[in-house]
Amino acid sequence: MVKPTKEEKLTFNLQSQDLAAIDLLTKNGFYRNRSDFVQKSIHDQLNKQAGYLNELVERDVKQRRGVIGLMRLDNKTIQKWADSQKSVSLVVYGLLLIPDDVEMAELTQVVKSIEVYGITRASKAIKAHYNLR
């Protein structure tokens, strides 16, 4: 079963002097730990770019079938699109959930492309077909 999550684990490299500075700030109580520093730094940068990000997302969502937040792509939705003979391209900003019972054949007949900025929870086969992480 596909389980939604709010966080995704990332791995990245830092220069030793940057890591030392983070550790010093953490030791002196500015941050709880390294993760707290990284999360707050990312939030600060995203807040600085919020206006530009909103414009980009709105433009992209208008051009394609888009969702901001959570999209659950289930058999009912796929069948509805198939019945109306719609072929869709999806863009998701947030979390895309595709349950395990969704059949690849039906999905690929209706959904031509999927682009996710965030987290994808789907079978390995679906992720591979649509080149999703």
From TrEMBL:
Q: One matching Pfam family, short form?
A: RHH_8
PANTHER family per UniProt: BLL4998 PROTEIN
- Its recorded name reads CopG family transcriptional regulator
Name its species.
Lacticaseibacillus jixianensis
